Amino acid sequence: MTLQPETVSDLVTTPTIHDWILSELSIFDRSPPANYLSAALQIAVFHLLGSGISNDVDEESFTAALLGSFCEACQVCVAAMPPASNSSLTWRRHNKNSSGTLGESATGADFALIIRHNNSFARAAVFQAKNGQSDVGSFKASHLSPATKVDPEEQQFVRLRRYCHCILSGKEDAEEALLDLQSIGWAHYLVYENYATYCCPLSSLTILEHRISKDISPGTVRYKDYPYFNFVDILVNGCNQEIGVQPGWLSLESSSEITAFVKSAADLFDIYEAHVDPTMDWVPLIEERNIPPQQEKIRLIKESLLLPSAILPVPVPAREPGLESKAPSTPPASQQDFQLATRDERRLRKAREHDNKGKFLEGRKGLGRNPRKD
Amino acid sequence: MTRIELTQFLRQIGVAINKEQEKNYRWASRPLGAPKPILRFRTLKDAENFWMKYGRYILYKASQIDESISKAADSNPGVIDSIARWLDPSTPDAYPPDLSEAAARLPEYHRPQRWKRDILKLASELGPLHDEWAVQRACYYRTLSRYGYHDASTGNRERLGDNADDT
C-alpha cells in the first residue's frame, strides 16, 4: 500500500527529512513510500548506484557497500519518524560466522534479508551478488563455491539450491511442490551493472537445472531472456505492509516460522533484519546473540573516539641529571586542564592565576617606575 | 522415527547418519562411504525433517519427470529423441520445449499414501538419492528406457513395438 504524501505527513514529524525523502525518490520517479524502510532501502540503492561503486567492482565489495548503504539510509530515514522511535532497532545482523555455525562463507557475496512487519509476520529473501557487466544482460553462473567443513567444492548454484532446501525443510508446511526450483522465487542472483541492479530468481533459472541435469557446466546465463525484476521493486514489495505473498519473497506467517527461518538460514548466510515499524518492540530472533542497549553502544563508540592522552595518564619524561632547572615544575596548561578536575582544584587554580596576575601587574608598575634600576 | 528407524531408512536411500559433535551440531549425515559429511544437524529431529522432506521432494520430482515425458511423448513421439539428445552432454541440444509445456500442464500432485515405501523403491531402482541432480538425470534415463533407450549417453535406442526393426 502506498500512502499519499498527506497521509505520510501524519507519520513524519520532521518535515525537512520527510521532504528530503520524497524529493530523493521523486528524482527517480518513485512514488511516495509506504513506510520509512521502503524509502530507506530505495534511497540506499539509488545513492549506491549514483556513487559509481557498482561499476565493475567485485561481488564481495558490492555486497558490503550495499549493506552499508542500507544501514546508513535506515538511520537517516528513521529520523523522519516520531521522536518515540528507537532507530537502534531498525537494523540487525546475525553473522553466520559467529559461534554455533558450521562453515565459512561460500563467496562472501550472499546474504539473507528479513523484513519484519510484526512479531508474527515477516518476509525473507536470499541474494547472491553477481557482477553483470555485459551489454546483453548476462552473468557467469559457473562459479565454484569452495569446500567448507561440510560442503564439498561445488557449483555455486547447486549450493545455493541446497541451502534453500535446508531452509525450507525447517518450514512446517513445506509441501513437495514448494521445494521445487520453480517455487524458489525468493532466492535471487542480484545482478549489478554500472547503473542498475536486477534480481534473477532461481525459479527463473530452470536452464541451470537443465544444464546440471545434463551434467554440463552452468556456464553463462542471459538472464534477461527469463523473468527478472528490478532490485528496487523487490525491496518495495518486501516492505509492502499488506499481509500476504509478494513476488520475490518468502512469507513467514508466524513467529515460529520466522524463528525457524533464522535458525536454518543463520548457518548458511549472513542475515540482515529490518523492521518496517521502528517503534515496535522487537523480539530477538537468536537468543544467544548479545546486542548491547543503544546507550551502551553510544558509550562504547564515544569511548573509542577519545584520544589516548585523554584517558591514560601522561607519562612524565625522566629528568636528566643537571637539567632540573630547565624542566618545568608543573605540567603545561593543557595538561593542567585535564588534571585539575575538581571544583576545589579549579578554585585554587583561579586563585593562583589571580595571584600571578597581581604580581605581574605589580611588576609592570615597578618596571614602569624604574625599569633598569636593578 | 526413532534413531534406529531413521538410521535404517537413510541407509536404504544411501545416506549415513552419525553422532558427530561440531559446535552446536550433534549429528552429521554423509553419502554412504563418503569421507566428509554433507550436512550437519542440531538434533535428530532436524535431520529427520530434512531427509523426509528431501525424500518426498525427490519422489515428487521423479513423478514430474516421468509424467511430463509420458505426456509429451503422447502428443509428439519425436520428443523422446529430443530428450535423449538434450541429455547427452556431448551435444549442444537444449531442453525440449515440448517437455516444458507438458510439465506445465501436469495435474496437481498428490503425495502417495505409502510415500516412504515409494522412496525406498525409487532408491532401489536408481541408487543413492542424496545427489538431487544425479537422481534427476537417472529419472530421465529411466523413463527414456521405457520408451526404448537403454544407453542414452551414447544415443543408442532400442525400439520397442512392431516396427522396431524397420529402421
Provide the structure class of chain A. Answer: alpha+beta
- The end-to-end span of chain A amounts to 92 Å
The helix/strand series of chain A, from N terminus to C terminus, equals: HHHHEEEEEEHHEEHEEHEHEHHHH
The total count of strands of chain A amounts to 12
Helix and strand composition category of chain B: alpha+beta
Contiguous helical run count of chain B: 6
Q: In percent terms, what proportion of residues of chain B is strand?
A: 5-15%
- List SSEs of chain B in N-to-C order: HEEEHHHHHEE
Name its key features.
heterodimer, A: 374 residues, alpha+beta, 8-stranded mixed sheet, two-stranded antiparallel sheet, 13 helices, disordered C terminus, B: 167 residues, 3-stranded antiparallel sheet, two-stranded antiparallel ribbon, 5 strands, 14% strand, elongated
Describe the structure.
The complex is a heterodimer of chains A (374) and B (167). Chain A contains 13 helices and 12 strands. With 374 residues, chain A is α+β, with helices and mostly antiparallel strands. In chain A, helix 2 packs across helix 3 and helix 3 packs antiparallel against helix 8. The relative contact order of chain A is 0.13. Chain B is an alpha+beta fold. Chain B has a domain of 113 residues. In chain B, a hairpin with a 7-residue loop joins strand 2 and strand 3.
